[in-house]
Write a structure and sequence with these properties.
Layout (H helix, E strand, L loop, with lengths): L18 H14 L20 E12 L7 H10 L5 E2 L4 E11 L13 E12 L6 E9 L3 E6 L3 E6 L8 E5 L18 E5 L12 E12 L2 E7 L35 H45 L1
Parallel strand pairs: 7-11
Antiparallel strand pairs: 1-4, 2-3, 3-4, 5-6, 5-10, 6-7, 8-9, 10-11
């Protein structure tokens, strides 16, 4: 009885692959890491505006899971839904909504041994994309001596570290300690402190707790975007009781006899106060130096008298 002839093209389990085949396998393995991920070209300059909210039209290359082989459009919608409230670098912002999906390919491709369907889609998206240098507003939800925490549009987080707070104009005022008998015994106190104006002692943000700041940095973690902000010492804050337009006067700031008058804008008050503090500190320094010189002269005189007595 004759056995079946072995096919010359059939490989045995212990056969080694050629270098070209191994490089192909490595390439396929690297490709499999990007399954299901969206890829997009950079946005054109006309779609990048100076506003934090943008409505754009973009195209993406999607890898549709095989479970949606009968309905590619539904698979694309599922992938786009998974991007909502996440920062997508290709769109340069956080996706808030999408609409008007259009499949650009009549036939989806299957690359190598990957079961994913590769197709190109086009859609419209509403994106929240703040940029460094923008001026935004947020509501203060936490104050501490080293930072201010804000909530933007009741959704996005922002933080202003201490080194971005003008401490010449704003000072941190500690609140009552928790469980302090002086402030109600075992009653829990939510107020851990607040930043107040150095002159008026008014709290930062006023009664509305709304604070205007400049974006100085973006932090991305797990596709979630948070902002790092900074405060300009000349920036008028919302709810301020002071006029935003400087008061017209024929006198220079240095010539104002009462720089802390009710009608003076807050910038003039602060500048005059800093000048006054600097002058006071300069006088103190000069007084200390003169006292030191006088003390040294007295010491030298005593030493000379002592030498004269010994001789």
């Amino acid at each position: 009885m004759m056995g079946h002839p072995t096919s010359p093209h059939k490989k045995r389990k212990n056969d080694f692959s050629s270098p070209s085949e191994s490089s192909k396998k490595k390439h396929r393995k690297e490709k499999s890491k990007d399954k299901g991920k969206a890829k997009a070209p950079p946005l054109p300059e006309e779609q990048v505006s100076n506003t934090e909210f943008r409505s754009i039209r973009s195209s993406l290359t999607l890898s549709i899971p095989p479970v949606f082989a009968r309905d590619v459009r539904q698979g694309a919608l599922e992938l786009l839904d998974s991007m909502i409230m996440r920062y997508i670098p290709a769109l340069e912002g956080v996706v808030l909504a999408h609409s008007n999906l259009r499949i650009l390919n009549n036939i989806s491709r299957i690359v190598a041994d990957s079961p994913y369907l590769v197709c190109n889609v086009e859609f419209e998206a509403t994106v929240w994309g703040p940029r460094i240098g923008m001026t935004l507003e947020g509501k203060i939800n936490l104050c501490s001596s080293d930072h201010i925490s804000l909530l933007i549009h009741r959704t996005f987080n922002a933080s202003i570290p201490r080194h971005h707070i003008p401490t010449n104009d704003w000072q941190f005022e500690y609140g009552p300690a928790e469980n302090d008998p002086e402030f109600g015994g075992d009653e829990q106190v939510d107020d851990g402190g607040k930043w107040v104006d150095a002159q008026t002692r008014e709290p930062l943000g006023g009664s509305s707790k709304v604070l205007r700041f400049t974006v100085v940095g973006l932090t991305l973690a797990n596709e979630m975007l948070s902002l790092v902000g900074g405060m300009d010492e000349n920036e008028e804050q919302p709810g301020s009781t002071y006029p935003s337009v400087p008061v017209e006067t024929d006198l220079a700031v240095d010539q104002v006899e009462h720089p802390l008058e009710e009608h003076a804008p807050i910038q003039v008050k602060r500048k005059a106060k800093r000048k006054e503090d600097g002058t006071r500190e300069k006088k103190k320094t000069q007084k200390r130096e003169s006292e030191k010189v006088e003390s040294e002269k007295k010491q030298e005189k005593k030493e000379e008298e002592k030498k004269a007595e010994d001789s």
